[in-house]
Design brief:
The complex is a heterodimer of chains A (345) and B (545).
Chain A lengths: L1 H7 L10 H32 L16 H30 L6 E8 L2 E5 L5 E3 L1 E5 L4 E7 L4 E5 L4 E5 L5 E5 L5 E7 L12 E6 L1 H13 L7 H7 L2 H12 L25 E3 L5 E3 L2 H9 L22 H13 L21
Parallel strand pairs in A: 1-5, 4-10
Antiparallel strand pairs in A: 1-2, 2-3, 5-8, 6-7, 6-9, 9-10, 11-12
Helix pairs in contact in A: 2-3, 6-8
Chain B lengths: L21 H5 L4 H29 L10 H20 L2 H15 L7 H25 L11 H4 L5 H27 L12 H33 L12 H35 L6 H14 L15 H29 L8 H24 L1 H7 L3 H25 L1 H5 L5 H28 L13 H31 L53
Chain lengths: 345, 545
């Protein structure tokens, strides 16, 4: 019965311990709504047929609702609403109170990707591995704007806010791959900020984690990265973060709203207006002050001018920082891009 | 009794030709002319918002880029939301039909502050112009909610939009103050509080919300502006600010604003359901007290927009409970309207078709609202298309149907002409079915897990998006038909006579279109409004003198 309703209502597979609870209440509310809604529709139709006036206006009787009926208009729906509210709140408390033994995972949202890290490692981008049958507590935060971590198959959603941690937990009941979406609008690539939960049998999960810890494919090496930079370049990194440069320019080679800064310095860039330009100090400075003068081909002319917003020292620091970003430095591994075809049933 | 068309020629010129020329309109203090000017501008706004809605639906036909890129999509849904919410729905019924009818329904010559009324119109035009200019020149991509910290961090120039919406807010406040004062001080002798027409009660409840809530919107917009201009840091955790503070302040206004959008519509339905079933309301006092209830309890439910924001568990439970309470008032109204139909003498007209559509769609809109106010269910539905479908059921399925009901019901009152009734009914049916075809698939998309504000989506969501876009095109044709036949009727419709619907509403006691000062002599209304129970005293206006 509930499987049938799930399919009629287009709900995804119920793959967490929370999902059947949410669905049960969902079915209760929806079925009640449709019964009463059909009742209202039918009543309206019957009235329309029975009481439709002919050519001449019939005199309708004078009547007002008796007090008990007025009370029923308020009381009957109220009883249902409160019952639903109470049942839902129980499940909500349950969903927001992680069990003590839960496995912790730190989740960081940033424009436009999800990072996952286990205490003691490893850390991953875009793929969250969890063991089935084990409660997993997510501690979420954001590096920039508000994001929302959403796994439809788990019926779980929680915002990731800059400057604070929020938490939610779930327990995957079946091995499988489940879609993660960002549910809070976060800018240009909001709709592409996707990731994946891979639920493994506990044994397989342990094997996976042990292997990852011995040979990390992605170390959170920001500390050592920092130390490779000279003092001016390090300051440039601070300026880039403060001025919002990094919202459009990545440091890891992926093109975003603007070209990546990785390996930009000294590169020959094709221009939208035809021809090309070498990205030297002069071009980089010009692009900060008059960004629309020479736009790199393939990018929208959306960059605002920083004329008057950057001091000379800051411009210098930024350029040093861009210079320091050369690809011979160890590149992060390619993000495992999940495949979003229809998931196998 | 058939509606009477034989009431003789109106005595003297109507408000439409009491003075001539564009200047006489632009400088008028006549609430009726101001209402008509508001209506004209509002319809333009609706057209603009509607064009962008269609653009969004076309883009969503396929995953990936269909006709525009992600940036263009984000800007387009911002335009759609900003125009529809701030510039159309919030001012819609009160400023147009409210302005036109409130004094007529109270037997007054005008509103309490006619000059302020005109100021309110120009503030609206100024604010709307600034907002539109800001949205387009700045390429604003924040959505209509301007959530921080995205809105404080985005590189787009947001300031003109913030100022524009702020100014529109003042227009709303002034209209609210004007209406409250008018209802308190300008009622004709004999119109005691429990004899005030139900549409006036709805406008009164709306005005209270406008006056109490809109200043909070002004404050929060000013804070965002402060953050952007001088870097105040209020919403920036890096400087000790709190990004969630914005959401609390914003929804403290914007949830009551939902009732600003729907209460006047409910008032329209309360009037028309009586007029076309020839019965007095099944319970006048239930409608009145539920209106007042919504106005006050509506202020206590804002936290239900924040169940997954990290708000405390207890807070979520409290807001869920309060949201259940506010839903009751809508349920009471629905049952009362149904009771009014019971054993009535139902006259199927265009406004009445919209009334039936309204009741049916409001029920589903309201119940889906209750559903998302259930805390656990909201974990799944929050910020998905389920929510999109829910609030479109309220704002389009209910508010806009009420707007169309009002437009057709009072069209003869405002213009003195009739429109082709058969055409009207057919179009109403098309619009109602087009609406359902557009938004029912969106509920299912939400169930599947499709989040809001997505330019691109996984392939599995496509069939339902295609269905929704197909429905939207029906809806678009429906609106086009309405524009065509009403536009035609303005010039070529046959004369309406004073009271083509045979309505007992006080506003129909003056000529259609009414004379400049509404009544030829101070009117007296010996009977309560909506008094359909006995043979009508059709025809004569009761004058004191």
């Amino acid at each position: 019965m509930s499987e049938l309703l799930r399919r009629i209502l287009f709900l995804p597979d119920a793959a967490s311990s929370l999902a059947p609870r949410v669905d049960r209440l969902h079915f209760f509310i929806i079925v009640t709504t449709f019964i009463v809604g059909a009742g209202i529709g039918l009543t309206g139709l019957i009235f329309l047929v029975r009481y439709r006036r002919g050519r001449a206006e019939a005199l309708a009787p004078v009547m007002t609702a008796p007090a008990w009926l007025e009370a029923a208009f308020a009381g009957v729906p109220l009883a249902f609403f409160l019952l639903w509210g109470a049942l839902g709140f129980q499940d909500y408390i349950w969903a927001r109170t992680p069990p003590r033994e839960a496995l912790d995972v730190y989740v960081t949202g940033k424009q436009w990707m999800w990072k996952f890290a286990y205490p003691g490692g490893p850390g991953m981008v875009g793929v969250l591995h969890v063991p089935t049958g084990t409660p997993v507590r997510l501690l979420l935060t954001s590096r920039d704007v508000i994001h929302s971590f959403y796994v439809p198959a788990f019926r779980v959603k929680m915002d990731a806010l800059p400057g604070r941690y929020t938490e939610i937990w779930f327990e995957a009941v079946r091995p499988g791959r489940y879609r993660v979406l960002c549910a809070e609008y976060c800018g240009l690539d909001h709709s592409r900020m996707r990731a994946e939960v891979v639920a493994l049998e506990p044994g397989a999960f342990e094997t996976w984690r042990a292997r990852q810890r011995s040979e990390p494919t992605w170390a959170s090496g920001e500390g050592e990265e920092e130390s490779l930079l000279g003092p001016l370049a390090a300051e440039g990194r601070v300026v880039a973060a403060k001025q919002g440069c990094l919202q459009c320019h990545t440091l890891d080679g992926t093109p975003h709203i603007g070209p990546t800064w990785l390996g930009l310095y000294g590169r020959e860039e094709p221009l939208a207006s035809g021809g090309s330009v070498r990205a030297d100090v002069a071009y980089l400075t010009e692009s900060m002050m008059d960004p629309l003068a020479k736009v790199v081909a393939g990018y929208a002319p959306v960059m605002p001018s920083f004329h008057g917003r950057l001091s000379a020292a800051e411009v210098g620091a930024l350029i040093e920082f861009i210079k320091s970003l050369q690809p011979e430095r160890p590149e992060p591994p390619p993000v495992q891009e999940p495949d979003y075809g229809p998931l196998p049933r | 009794m058939a509606p009477s068309h034989a009431e003789g020629a109106p005595r003297g010129p109507s408000y439409l030709n009491a003075e001539q020329g564009l200047w006489s309109w632009l400088t008028t203090h006549d609430h009726k002319r101001i209402g008509v000017m508001f209506l004209a501008v509002l319809l333009l706004m609706f057209l603009l918002g509607g064009v962008f809605a269609m653009a969004l639906r076309v883009e969503l036909l396929t995953p990936g880029d269909t006709v525009m890129g992600r940036l263009a999509y984000n800007r387009a849904f911002t335009v759609h939301g900003v125009v529809m919410v701030w510039l159309f729905l919030i001012p819609s019924i009160p400023t147009s039909f409210g302005n036109f009818l409130l004094p007529l329904m109270l037997g007054a010559r005008d509103v309490a502050f006619p000059r302020l009324n005109l100021a309110s119109f120009y503030l609206y035009v100024l604010g709307a112009t600034m907002t539109l200019w800001g949205v387009f020149q700045g390429g604003v991509d924040t959505g209509w909610t301007f959530y921080t910290p995205y809105s404080t961090a985005t590189g787009r120039d947001l300031l003109p939009v913030l100022v524009g919406v702020f100014v529109v807010g003042f227009s709303t406040i002034l209209t609210g103050i004007n209406f409250i004062t008018t209802v308190h001080t300008m009622r004709a002798p004999g119109i005691t509080w429990m004899k005030v027409p139900l549409f006036v009660w709805a406008l009164y409840g709306t005005s209270i919300i406008q006056v109490l809530a809109t200043p909070v919107l002004g404050m929060v917009l000013a804070l965002v502006a402060l953050e952007r201009v001088v870097g105040a840091g209020l919403f920036d955790p890096g400087r000790g600010g709190d990004p969630l503070l914005y959401q609390h302040l914003f929804w403290f206004y914007s949830h009551p604003a939902v009732y600003i959008m729907i209460l006047p519509g409910m008032g329209v339905i309360s009037e028309t359901v009586c007029a076309f079933s020839r019965k007095q309301p099944f319970s006048y006092r239930v409608i009145v007290w539920s209106t007042v209830g919504i106005s006050f309890v509506g202020f206590l439910t804002w936290g239900h927009h924040m169940f997954v924001s990290g708000q405390s568990t207890f807070g979520a439970g409290a807001f869920s409970l309060l949201s259940m309470l506010v839903a009751i008032f809508t349920a009471m109204k629905i049952f009362t309207w149904l009771g009014t139909l019971y054993r009535g003498s139902l006259w199927v007209t265009t406004p009445f078709t919209y009334v039936l559509g309204f009741i049916f769609l409001l029920f589903f809109g309201g119940m889906s609202g209750v559903a998302v106010a259930v805390t656990s269910a909201d974990l799944h539905w929050h910020d998905t298309y389920f929510v999109v479908a829910h609030f479109h059921f309220i704002m389009v399925g209910a508010s806009l149907m009420a707007f169309l009901a009002a437009l057709h019901y009072w069209f003869p009152k405002m213009s003195g002409r009739r429109y082709p009734e058969g055409m009207g009914i057919g179009t109403a049916v098309l619009i109602i079915f087009g609406f359902i075809a557009t938004f029912l698939p969106q509920f299912l998309l939400g169930n599947m897990g499709m989040p809001r504000r997505y330019a691109d989506y996984p392939d599995a969501f496509q069939p339902l998006h295609v269905a929704s876009t197909a429905g939207a095109s029906l809806l678009g044709f429906g609106f086009l038909f309405v524009a065509i036949y009403l536009g035609w009727s303005l010039r070529h419709g046959r004369a309406a006579g004073r009271n083509p619907w045979g309505s007992e509403g006080y506003e129909w006691r003056s000529d259609s279109p009414p004379p400049e000062f509404n009544f030829h002599a101070p009117p007296v209304f010996p009977r309560p409004p909506h008094d359909y129970g006995r043979p009508s005293a059709e025809g004569e206006v009761d004058h004191a003198a």
